[in-house]
Amino acid sequence: MTCASLRAMRGYQPKLVGLLLLAGCATEPRPAAVAPPPPPLPIYDVIIRNGTIYDGSGGSPYAGDVLVNGDRIVAVGPASKARGRTEIDAAGLAVAPGFINMLSWATESLIADGRGQSDIRQGVTLEVMGEGESMGPWNATMKANEAARQGDIKYRIDWTSLGEYLAYLEKKGISPNVASFVGATTVRVHELGEDDVDPTPEQLHRMRMLVRQAMNEGAMGVGSSLIYAPANFAETPELIALASEAGRCGGMYISHIRDEGPKLLEAIDELVEISEKSGAPAEIYHFKQSGRDNWHKIDAAIARVEAARARGLRITADMYTYPASSTGFDAAMPLWVQAGGIEQWVKRLKDPALRAKALADMRKPDASENTKLAVQEPDKVILVGFKTEALKPLIGKTLGEVARERGKPPEEVIADLIVADNSRIQVVYFGMSEENVAREVALPWMAFDSDAAAMAPEGVFLKSSTHPRAYGNFARLLGKYVREDKRLTLAEAVRRLTSFPASNLGIKDRGALKAGNYADIAIFDPARIADRATFTKPQQYAVGMVHVLVNGVPVLRDGEHTGATPGRFVKGPGAGRCN
């Protein structure tokens, strides 16, 4: 009989049952307590495991995991027992914040192909545009001119302001994030046209208000490109006025300075003056010394920047990692002949007297470094882009080759080609020092840029060529200058690709791997990352970038683009509060 049965009988035979219970059941063990089940492991959208973390600070790397929910980083640190809906094994790989391209010309390429593959495959997650010219604000005349001057990429202009353009890209669908400076040239043309004129006080006020409007929409500051017409027609006080509006809204002044050759140091002085008088921090676009006669000026150029920084000014620079530049023949022709826009430029070159004057100016000893290179060493100038189909067979040839084929001096060939193509024509100039480039990458105040579009070796992009920096600039830094030449550590290179430019731009929630930041992440093999693009075959993807996330979404997986387009319009610090 069980103890339970005896207890049930207690009411019928109380004495007997009591004795039995006392004797045999008093010490019956109770059932063992069952431990509660362990709480379920948390589940995250993405977990990046086993990687070596370069968090963007420049400090020592460490082993750990990165946990992502939605578009944000939740945690970075020791190995986690949590589970991820998507898990990425980064064993043997570097895990870094996504890279920032401080000078991107993806303005049109992202309209044609939102994937931005040449940059995404190098770890770029933010394209910063606006070197002098920006995709707004535009008036009706500017819109008509932009439409008429389009090259290989054709598109409708469905926006007016810069903010509307960036919002258009986001809505259309793009893989990288985008940001932009408002162009000093753009606001000048908006109010003054393309001629060599000075603004009246009323016109300058309207230009300032256009900058303020763009800053309120989310521009990063104001950008200039002073070696070109009509940008060069702007005098220093005009630029100070525009930069003041950017500065009061928390933005920067950033500039392709007025001269990169004989008057390089004076041009740096002008940028420093603009920064000091406007109150805006300033950055030099693609820091360089153009022309062999100016290579020795690197020490003085560095000293100018460091002296300004020592005085408390926030002066920085960015660069691409190649000894050749790429721009148009406008950088090799007198500015006066270009006043009024390409249409007036072509008209003047068709006038025998004006053409003769322009070519004579190009032969002068005090001509610009790009002009000297084109006239005196035309085999150091490669033709890479034309609008006109009949001229496209010349792509890839040097100016010298074409001049010999036509039996004409190179400056005459330049004039002929501009008239025939009705454009500035994209070219590559070999006018820089490889050793200077190597020194510059190590400067602690140097960020990096491609100064190129984000493209793919397919479709419309095959109609023209390009500079290899479009496909290899950032990989070249990490492969050649970090791994091979040891000009800087990998941790420092990552800092200057990420948190450093983010801080300069006033972006507080990108550029570093830390909880709360947006999950823009680049995962690459430090032993393999390298550029493959060359000047003869520039349209070749870099290698070694394995995975890339933008706003928490994988856009590159195992080295291949996923087709995802989570990119966003990243706004500057004045957005919504600069009225």
Average pLDDT, all residues: 94
Total of DSSP H or I helical runs spanning 4+ residues: 20
Structural class: alpha/beta
Helix content: 25-40%
The biggest beta sheet is recorded as: 9 strands, mixed
Oligomer: single chain
Query: Judging from the principal axes of the Cα atoms, what is the shape?
Result: globular
Low-confidence stretches: 6-12, 14-24
What is the rounded distance between the termini?
91 Å
> Strand percentage, roughly?
15-25%
Rg (CA only): 31 Å
How many β strands by DSSP?
21
Set down the secondary structure blueprint:
Layout: H1 3-9, H2 14-25, E1 43-53, E2 62-69, E3 72-77, E4 83-89, E5 94-97, E6 99-101, H3 109-112, H4 117-120, E7 124-129, H5 140-148, H6 162-172, E8 177-180, E9 182-183, H7 184-192, H8 201-217, E10 221-225, H9 236-248, E11 252-256, H10 264-278, E12 282-284, H11 298-310, E13 315-319, E14 325-328, H12 342-350, H13 352-362, H14 369-376, E15 381-385, H15 399-406, H16 410-421, E16 426-429, H17 434-440, E17 446-448, H18 469-484, H19 490-497, H20 499-505, E18 521-524, E19 545-550, E20 553-557, E21 560-561
Pick out its properties.
18% strand, globular, 579 residues, 9-stranded mixed β-sheet, alpha/beta, single chain
Description:
The protein is of the alpha/beta class and 579 residues long. 35% of the residues lie in helices and 18% in strands. Strands 1, 2, 3, 4, 5, 18, 19, 20 and 21 form a nine-stranded mixed sheet that branches. It has a six-stranded parallel sheet with strand order 9-10-11-12-13-17, sandwiched between helices. A three-stranded parallel sheet has the order 6-7-8. Strand 12, helix 11 and strand 13 form a beta-alpha-beta unit. Helix 10 packs parallel to helix 11 and helix 15 packs across helix 16.
